[in-house]
Design a protein that fits this description.
The chain is of the alpha/beta class. Helix content is 38%, strand content 17%. α6 crosses α10.
């Protein structure tokens, strides 16, 4: 039995689908099972941060999403270990690297989770993706409504990774030997700017789209209306630091899964319905 936290998130949903298709027993944790829309063969269970004892019964491996722990990572790890779980695969963040700003809220959140897992006595694997291609979904309301996208830093450079490529690596880390104690840095295959990404989405949906750069103070609340302000500030600082700087590009996806990481162009084609009026 493999437990997947954050099962209705972009990566968690893709991972559940992969594991079920492979015939694996999956327990998908979500706060709202009735609206989860997960595969029928997955055991969908409501995640209750204050009642974790039964969540891991019969399980030996866990895919862990930091925010999916409900702010109770030590308690979750204790419950998992007590139930017999042996391995944790953590969706961490590429922001954790040598020389990084350790006060950055995103760094602090994931570094704390990594430390707690290391201290738990469980075998572990850390996945550290950089930019997610799904970040482009922040533009979906504007694209559905018109042909102009207002956003920050037109020339910021990232190598966005498809969420299913992250899920594919997580699947191999859960099912194959040799990943215990490993840290996998994950990226897409090529650098793109925000302008490039809007153009790629336009090609996917068959429309001419234009990117208009606006100041971070204006765009922050527009693009991240449900994100805590301190995290928005951290995100915008991270974005600003990428302008004119070539991003890290790794080949880890292909090395681990046997298939090359998918391009942003492919991601846009896979998500055309998200951008349709």
């Amino acid at each position: 039995m493999i437990v997947v936290t954050g099962a209705t998130g972009n990566v968690g949903r893709a991972l559940v689908a992969r594991l079920v298709a492979d015939g694996r027993a999956v327990r998908a944790l979500t706060r709202a099972p009735e609206t989860a829309g997960l595969p029928d063969k997955a055991e969908v269970v409501q995640f209750r941060p204050d009642d974790q004892a039964a969540l891991f019964e019969g399980a030996d491996k866990v895919f862990l999403y930091v925010q999916g722990a409900g702010g109770r990572m030590p308690e979750l790890l204790d419950a998992a270990r007590t139930a017999g779980v042996r391995q944790v695969v953590l969706l961490s963040s590429g922001i954790i690297r040598e020389g990084a700003d350790e006060t950055h809220p995103i760094h602090a959140m994931h570094a704390t989770a990594e430390r707690q897992i290391r201290d738990s006595g469980l075998a572990w694997t850390f996945l550290r993706p950089n930019a997610f291609a799904t970040n482009a979904l922040q533009w979906a309301p504007q694209i559905r409504a018109g042909h102009t996208v207002r956003g920050v830093f037109a020339d910021m450079l990232t190598a966005p990774i498809h969420e299913d490529d992250i899920a594919a690596v997580a699947e191999r880390a859960l099912l194959d030997d040799g990943h215990e104690g490993a840290v996998h840095r994950l990226t897409g295959p090529a650098a793109t700017t925000n302008t490039d990404q809007i153009a790629a989405i336009g090609r996917a949906v068959g429309r001419d789209l234009a990117f208009v750069e606006v100041g971070p103070e204006e765009a922050g609340p527009l693009l991240f209306p449900q994100t805590p302000p301190e995290l928005v500030r951290g995100l915008l600082k991270t974005f600003a630091d990428t302008v004119g700087v070539a991003p890290e590009i790794t080949t880890a996806v292909e090395e681990i899964t046997g298939s090359p990481a998918r391009t942003f162009e492919q991601w846009a084609k896979d998500h055309t319905t998200d951008f349709q009026p």
